[in-house]
Design a protein that fits this description.
Layout (H helix, E strand, L loop, with lengths): L4 H4 L1 H4 L6 E5 L2 E9 L8 H17 L19 E6 L15 E7 L6 H15 L7 E5 L2 E9 L5 H14 L2 E3 L7 E5 L12 E10 L6
Antiparallel strand pairs: 1-6, 2-4, 2-5, 3-4, 3-8, 6-9, 7-9, 8-9
Length: 215
């Protein structure tokens, strides 16, 4: 049976519908950076998704090709993820999606080296006759976070975020979003196939231990 990261690491991919604290270890990703409204027809975001999956499935199907990746095991391609921010704003303003800056991501299995990744990007570009130069190998150490499973429309996320922040403060932490730590979403549902009210999205925010001034 193929290894499924969602099932094997439920603490990262299947949190409860109430906020919890989690420490996320360093992970490697296929990543594409861009900006703009993710819903825009033929926009950067939709193009980025095609690039991500092009590389992800090239690696997954490498077992049937000429390149045998050392340590390879059969696995389910992990879910699509995204880091989101807007310049000058702490958090996310959903009323101005045109101002989004983002890094779209798919987790890489640990056996995939940077050389393997670069081979896959070149192979995908060759087979699909497309430009994969925007795709990068990204290592990200997310660290201490508050997270929650959000059910429903992406536009309704602010209420879930409010509950997360309330829990965070009551637990002795403060928000730690910065130029290197982001609003993070993991998409467990295919929005093309699942009703909006049933969409499952993991929302994760970086936090730090609260400090008391003057002590």
């Amino acid at each position: 049976m193929a290894f499924d990261y969602k099932k094997e690491y439920k603490e990262f991919y299947m949190p409860p519908k109430k906020p919890t604290i989690v420490t996320v270890p360093p992970m490697n990703y296929i990543a594409v950076r861009g900006c703009g409204d993710p819903n825009a027809e033929n926009g950067e975001y939709k193009q980025a998704i095609e690039l991500l999956y092009g590389v992800a499935y090239t690696i997954k199907m490498s077992k049937k090709g000429s390149r045998q990746i050392e340590g390879y095991f059969d696995y389910v391609v992990p879910p699509l993820e995204g880091f989101w921010w807007q310049d000058g704003i702490e958090g996310v303003d959903y009323t101005h999606k045109e101002n989004f800056q983002w890094i779209s991501l798919i987790r890489l299995p640990d056996f995939v080296t940077k050389d393997d990744f670069e081979w896959a990007a070149a192979e995908a570009a060759r087979k699909k006759k497309n430009d994969f130069s925007k795709v990068e190998f990204l290592t990200y150490d997310e660290g201490l976070c508050v997270q929650c499973m959000h059910i429903g429309s992406y536009d309704d996320e602010p209420e879930t975020v409010r509950l997360m922040h309330e829990f965070m403060i009551n637990s002795g932490y403060c928000l730690d979003i910065s130029e290197k730590r982001f609003h993070h979403e993991i998409y467990l549902s295919d929005a093309r196939k699942v009703a909006t009210e049933k969409l499952k999205t993991v929302i994760r925010h970086p936090i730090a231990v609260q400090t008391t001034e003057g002590k």
